[in-house]
Every structure is written in structure tokens, then in C-alpha cells.
């Protein structure tokens, strides 16, 4: 099992450019998440998908869109990148079982917007 | 809105001593409280968790306690070792997951 995979690992964009961050999981989890991590700010939820075909906003959704392509894949799109979106982006997946919601994280994408 | 406060933001302890990190949460409906460890440049990984119907849970050198009335929970690491140096995040979950801002733990030789 690869677990949660993300591409790319690193990306540099210019202000106004667009890009899509890809995430896939092979653990048959229903729920998937996108977080951003900034120094001193912890992990902040951007969007999540509780099941295939559904998506919901998290704490910081502005400037982002998501697509739950199928049960395995959940992508994050930046339509017009801004320097404030410079961050490390983590995808995660989980399955709710017995009151436990353990998040499994991908390796992260380090994004710099110039 | 829902919030999780985590303290301290930085903690330095002598190798072999104990470390305690504390979190408080605002949503009384929260029923699951995981702790994640993140080493430099790596992804967060679950180290221990506790459900709201349990007051304490222990796994070797780490333990978590939960006080539902006061809405706070704590991570305890005993006999600290150099490999415990990392950033630790608490979280509270009901229908949403809210993370604390993290504690950078330094183990001093």
C-alpha cells in the first residue's frame, strides 16, 4: 500500500498562474481533506470531502477549488495564485470507525508563489 | 467558531525529564482527540488518541488525559529521548477537525 500520495512535491508559481495539486489514496477511505500549513499556524483545513461526490468548505477555502474525482482521488486547484498561498499543502484521508477518525497524511507539496 | 488552544508553543526539556503539552477546546460536542507528531520536513503522524468516554490512555512512554468538564486534554511524555524532538499537534473532532497550532518540543542533551 502506498497510503496517501501527492504530486508534485515542490512547485514554484508566479502570481496569477493556476495549478492543480493531485492527491490519491489506496486505503479505500471515504473521507479526504486538504490542509495548508504555515509557520506558527498549525494545520488549517481548506476543503474536505466526506464521501465520493460531496465536498465542503473548511476554515480557509477562499482562493481554492476542489474536485473529488472518485473515491481514490481528491484534487485542489488554485485558479489565480497569490503570494499569500505560499505554504505547505497536505492531503489526508480517513475512515470513521468506532468513533475514531484517524487522519493519514500525504508527504506534502511545498508551494511558493512569487 | 470552534477553536483549539494549545500551550506552550515551544517547550525545552532535559533528556530523561517529562514533557507536558496542554490543549483546550471550545466545541463540547467534540468526541475524539488525537495527537500528531511531525518531524522536520515530514508529514504529521498519529501517536496517540483518546475518545470522549475515556479519561486516560497510555502507550509506553506517552499518555493522554481528558477532562470533559473543563474541556481540556493533555499529552504527557515521560523519560524523554532525543528522537522525541518534533512538533506536536493536538486536535478535537466532532463533525469537523480542528487542530491546535502546535508545540515545538526540544530535548536537550
Architecture blueprint of SSEs:
The complex is a heterodimer of chains A (114) and B (109).
Chain A: E1 4-7, E2 10-13, E3 19-25, E4 31-38, E5 42-49, E6 56-57, E7 65-68, E8 74-78, E9 87-94, E10 104-105, E11 109-113
Parallel strand pairs in A: 2-11
Antiparallel strand pairs in A: 1-3, 3-8, 4-5, 4-9, 5-6, 7-8, 9-10, 9-11
Chain B: E1 4-7, E2 10-14, E3 19-25, E4 32-38, E5 45-51, E6 56-59, E7 62-67, E8 72-77, E9 86-93, E10 97-99, E11 103-108
Parallel strand pairs in B: 2-11
Antiparallel strand pairs in B: 1-3, 3-8, 4-5, 4-9, 6-7, 7-8, 9-10, 9-11
Quickly list its features:
heterodimer, A: 114 residues, 7-stranded mixed β-sheet, B: 109 residues, mainly beta, 6-stranded mixed β-sheet, 5-stranded antiparallel β-sheet, 11 strands, 0% helix
Explain what you see.
- The complex is a heterodimer of chains A (114) and B (109).
- By secondary structure, chain A is mainly beta.
- Chain A has no helices and eleven strands.
- In chain A, strands 2, 4, 5, 6, 9, 10 and 11 form a seven-stranded mixed β-sheet that branches. Chain A has a four-stranded antiparallel β-sheet with strand order 1-3-8-7, with no helix packed on it.
- The model of chain A has no long low-confidence stretch (mean pLDDT 93).
- Helices cover 0% and strands 58% of the residues of chain B.
- Chain B is built from no helices and eleven strands.
- Chain B has strands at 4-7, 10-14, 19-25, 32-38, 45-51, 56-59, 62-67, 72-77, 86-93, 97-99, 103-108.
- In chain B, a hairpin with a 4-residue loop joins strand 7 and strand 8 (72-77).
- The model of chain B has no long low-confidence stretch (mean pLDDT 94).
- The A-B interface holds A 33, 40-45, 58-59, 90, 99-103, 105-108 and B 6, 9, 31-32, 34, 36, 42-46, 49, 51, 89, 93, 96-102.
Amino acid at each position: 500500500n502506498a497510503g496517501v500520495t501527492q504530486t508534485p512535491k515542490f512547485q514554484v508559481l508566479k502570481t496569477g498562474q493556476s495549478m492543480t495539486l493531485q492527491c490519491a489514496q489506496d486505503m479505500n477511505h471515504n473521507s479526504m481533506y486538504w490542509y495548508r500549513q504555515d509557520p506558527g499556524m498549525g494545520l488549517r483545513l481548506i476543503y474536505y470531502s466526506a464521501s465520493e461526490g460531496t465536498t465542503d468548505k473548511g476554515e480557509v477555502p477562499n482562493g481554492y477549488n476542489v474536485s473529488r474525482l472518485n473515491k481514490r482521488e481528491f484534487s485542489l486547484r488554485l485558479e489565480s495564485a497569490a503570494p499569500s498561498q505560499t505554504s505547505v499543502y497536505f492531503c489526508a484521508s480517513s475512515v470513521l470507525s468506532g468513533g475514531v477518525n484517524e487522519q493519514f497524511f500525504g508527504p506534502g507539496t511545498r508551494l511558493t508563489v512569487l | 467558531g470552534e477553536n483549539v488552544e494549545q500551550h506552550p508553543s515551544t517547550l525545552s526539556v532535559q533528556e530523561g525529564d517529562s514533557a507536558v503539552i496542554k490543549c483546550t477546546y471550545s466545541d463540547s460536542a467534540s468526541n475524539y482527540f488525537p495527537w500528531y507528531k511531525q518531524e522536520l520536513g515530514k508529514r504529521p503522524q498519529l501517536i496517540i488518541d483518546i475518545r470522549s468516554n475515556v479519561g486516560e490512555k497510555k502507550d509506553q512512554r506517552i499518555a493522554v488525559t481528558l477532562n470533559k468538564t473543563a474541556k481540556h486534554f493533555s499529552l504527557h511524555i515521560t523519560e524523554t529521548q532525543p528522537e522525541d524532538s518534533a512538533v506536536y499537534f493536538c486536535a478535537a473532532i466532532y463533525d469537523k477537525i480542528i487542530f491546535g497550532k502546535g508545540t515545538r518540543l526540544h530535548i536537550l542533551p
